[in-house]
Amino acid sequence: MIRQYNIKALLTHWAVLAVDCLIVVISLILAYQLRFNFNVPAVEQPLIFRAVFSLFAIRFIFFIFFRTYAGMIQYTSSEDAQRIFFSITLGTATLGILNFIVAQFQPNYLIPFSILLIDYFISMFLLAAYRIAVKTIYEEVVKSKKPKVNVIIYGADNNGVITKRTLEQDRKKNYDVVAFTDSKLSNQTKNIEGVKVLNIDRDLDKLLATGEADMLIISDSTVKTAVKNKVINACLKYDVKVLTVPPASKWINGELSVNQIRQVRIEELLEREPIRLDKEIIEAQTKGKRILVTGAAGSIGQEIVRQLAKYNPALLICLDQAETPLHELDLELQHDFPNLKYEIVLGDVRVEERMEKVFRLLKPELVYHAAAYKHVPLMENNPSESILTNVLGTKICADLSVKYGVEVFVLVSTDKAVNPTNVMGASKRIAEIYVQSLNKKLVDKMGEMATHFITTRFGNVLGSNGSVIPRFRQQIETGGPITVTDAEITRFFMTIPEACQLVLEAGAMGKGGEIFIFDMGEPVKIIDLAKKMIQLSGLQLDKDIKIEITGLRPGEKLYEELLANAENTIPTHHPKILIAKVREYEFEAACKEIETLISLFDKQNNNAIVSKMKQIVPEYISNNSIYEELDLKLAEK
Fold it and tell me: Which residue ranges form the domains of the chain, and what is each CATH number?
């Protein structure tokens, strides 16, 4: 097979070289005709043969030297154009020099300079033109044999035009852009490069309904979330595949390629309009400060680090016990924030001696405590570990913050702490109780000089480690089935950047003791999420991928709560941030109960640990859990 391929390639190269040589001869003859207005004098005619022979010899040598024949004509590129340019230019220059030499010995040039100049432009044009013609014909023939893919492009702007041209240049598929559509069109815009422009409200649904379009590509990266959702939902309704173009800033070397056009992710469907932050208040709190982020290698912790890095802190301390993710964060910060002063600390918030050293040597002024265990079923089976990390780890960091004069301590909590039904949610509620009661004690004792403890709660974040979306994506990639615990289960969702931005703003606006909750929008049915992810992957439910109902996991709720209503929340200046009205605890009593709870770790008696948690958090009622029997016993008492 290799030998046959080499022979074929060799024959192709000789054929290209032969055509190039023929063009050289034709070009010179045409140059003579043009020079003498198609009436070559009799005295010049005998010299034509010598000129042809001389030109042919020189051109042949330079064709061989520059390997102008080596490229595949059907894939002509700028490299082939360069070869032709250098070959013809240097060949012509060589003939010019030979003209001067020959003129020293006889009256006639090898080739008259005027004809040589005309030949230069003709041969350059013909050699390039025939290659382009062959490439164009080849592409049309190849494309005609491939099934046509009809495309609608959302974005009737420069990016849309670039997307169209990129698709048309693709050799692997036969794309045909049948329409542009946009929500920002003027009434005068009728077509772009011969392609009709549709009104999104009046025409898009009709076109999709005809089945004429195979896919829609969103090229406008500035499209509003509501409009994007409208377009995507219309496409999903008619089984039209949806792709999206990355922002121009992310194009490779400033150019768009077909490989960069990707499927729309479910996260983009769940996104809301960007949050307007009070950047001045955040910058005033964080700029030039020494800031510690615990759990910095987690999905939330990493994004908090990224957000803080933009505000030029004096030192950003990134602490986590996960070695590999922490190393990856280090590499990211080196690349994205080369001027940032930061410290990567491998450590465990549960080890007081290690944390004491961090606080003593690095002297943080602000602490964002994101370190926590968060997987509900795992914590349900390992309540002692949940207590050690979520409660003891928080207590250690909070106590050290007071000891070393930290200005603000922000606890990153969860909506699962509201009326908890599982160990994880209850452990986070206990952590909230500790820092909130500690704040009350300090304010009563020290006033404004005290460390301000602030708690932030939010629901599921899109794409975070262990969340449902990465799990569904993995199940789709392996052919399914997608597993959903209950057909009625719903969750609130928020993007990681959005959640972390709100954490920073809440931390900046807090006076101490508040539990801030975020407007999470409307809850989403998980089964609907799974169905849309299947559609966005270009697959069909039940035909390509099935959904399997597995039953609620231990401690899992059907519906999450945020206490986000007027009766139990207080509004703030930010419409997406509210303050929860919750029961307050006296520090001494709460601290004593929490220390007793932590001491139960040594006995490793899960029932004793969970019973104590239920005493501290009376609203903690287990659901779908082995600890439901403890609620019955407590009720009997």
Answer: 2-142 (no CATH), 146-264 (3.40.50.720), 280-464+493-524+560-616 (3.40.50.720)
